[in-house]
Amino acid sequence: TGTPGAGRPGSTNTGIFSSGNNIGQRALSGMSNQQIAVYRKRCVSILRDPNAWDYALVQMCKALRQAAAR
Questions:
Q1: Residue 40 burial by CB count (10 A; 0-12/13-18/19+): exposed, middle or buried?
Q2: Global model pTM greater than 0.70
Q3: I need a labelling partner for 27 at 20 to 30 A (CA). Which of 5, 54, 64, 65 fits?
Q4: Distance between CA atoms of 1 and 22, rounded to whole angstroms?
Q5: What is the SS3 assignment for 25-70?
């Protein structure tokens, strides 16, 4: 029923926050600016080798990287 990957009309599911995958977004929402600054530094090494880290931590780092790009 439709083309795979086409999505629903009018949906805005893009990036790591799509398809209910909002682990990183939820983690960021409860953090202070100081905590975010600390994690942004740690995330550099975490994102270099994401398979060595917890999935939720990697998603949070991706959310931080995406937020920093805006």
A1: middle
A2: no
A3: 5
A4: 26
A5: HHHHHCCCHHHHHHHHHHHHHHHHCHHHCCHHHHHHHHHHHHHHCC
